[in-house]
Amino acid sequence: MVKNVATSELIDEEAEVAPDSGSIPVWLWELDISAYARIVFCYLKVYHGRGARSKIFPGQALIAERNGISIRTVKRSIKELETSGAIGVQRRGKNKTNVYTLYWFGPRKENS
Questions:
Q1: Can you tell me the distance from the alpha carbon of 96 to that of 112, in angstroms, rounded to the nearest whole number?
Q2: Lower CB count within 10 Å: N or C terminus of the chain?
Q3: N- to C-terminal Cα separation, the chain
């Protein structure tokens, strides 16, 4: 179980179904994050829409290239998104892509 930071609602992540890849969540604009972080989130959301996976793993170089930003900016943006609770990041090690989990229904932090 996780807690939606905005509403304090407990959510069972396993029960969630992702909305269509064309919709942008309103809560994304309410977070205190950079415009680049929003761009990266939106790219991850569109990338997710290409398959039925709940976890995705595009490389940072691909994210940077497709959005016309530097890899360094992508890294900062991913850190912002992770810190804000908008995404989860599983680091798999050197020379492997990270695995990203998008939190469709609002930012959250692990329930303690």
A1: 30
A2: C
A3: 9
Model pTM greater than 0.85? no
List the structure tokens of 17.
């179904």
Q: Can you list the positions of beta strands (E) in 1-112?
A: 2-4, 10-11, 55-56, 87-90, 99-102, 108-110
**Token match 């609770």: residue?**
85
Express each pLDDT in 30-61 by its tens digit.
899 999 999 999 999 887 765 545 688 899 99
Domain ranges (residues) in the chain = 2-110
Rounding to the nearest 10 degrees, give the CA dihedral for residues 41, 46, 52, 54.
Answer: 0
- pLDDT surpasses 50 at 16: no
